[in-house]
Structure prediction request, 154 residues.
Amino acid sequence: MSSEPQPEAGSTEPPKGDIVVIAVDGSQQAANAFDWYITHLHKPGNQLILAHSMEVPSMPTRDSWESQTQQGKSKRLELQEKYTALFKELQISGKFIADFEKPGEFVCKVAEQEKATYVVMGTRGLGKIRRTILGSVSDYVVHHSHAPVLVCRQ
Prediction:
């Protein structure tokens, strides 16, 4: 017996797919996670939501703030164009959401707001000590997301 909701008898509407949030940041790990999802999990009807967090600049001077903000916006635009083209090429329904926030918190917020079925993301593969000192976005999302999280390791 399938756990997916089925259309009512006589309905011509296909069953709705999953809502999938994929964290993207321009890294190879994020690209690999996207590719892995497409190859192994994607099915027609799924709605993809790509979440990209542009971290808030940490330097308080006005010049550095504006420079870092502009760099973040440029990177966002580049990623958005790349994935929008991929959506068209693969005939996938989806959208790109970006904001200036801490990455882990942002991915969790997007997943909750969009009522994600699950989240897919990559990992840098930090060792235990480096992960403890630097923190890990994937660890944060695994521990704080209300939706199941699939972390793709290479």
Q: What stands out?
A: Confidence is low (pLDDT under 50) at residues 1-9. The radius of gyration is 17 Å. Residues 56 and 100 are 5 Å apart (CA to CA).
